[in-house]
Design a protein that fits this description.
With 144 residues, this protein is mainly beta. Helix content is 0%, strand content 51%. A six-stranded antiparallel sheet has the order 8-10-7-4-5-9, with no helix packed on it. It has a five-stranded mixed sheet with strand order 1-2-11-3-6, with no helix packed on it.
Amino acid sequence: MNHGSGRRGKIACRMGAATFFAIATPGAAIASLSLCNQSYDVLNIAIAEPHGAEFVTSGWWRVAPNQCATLRPEALQARYYYIFAADVFGNEALPGSTPMCIATGKFEIEGQQDCLIRGYLDARFYEIDTQQQDNWTVFVAPRP
């Protein structure tokens, strides 16, 4: 990440299961959406992003402790993205409130209505407000 001349915004939220930090780095050399796992658990990650009038969910990224994963390698086009993060036992690391569809294996699901009827699982995604930046990193810290 380039932390040079561009302004850097920082958001910190404290949640029951984990502490979450997001850092925007405008003007960074490589624009992307990334997640860094600073917890002690391996995390399984799914993302939801806008696609026309709908959202598309996709997964899975497995992120080991003290590692980062690039979820979207290109400049971000939307303000809001959604992330579902759970440890290998299914415990949520970023408790969210936005219902979206996931599957047990690798998936890409268009449309987020009637997940169970369509044969998918229902999960609660955490909303990420990128504040219209083209680069954003989410940090998941250890549980307090």
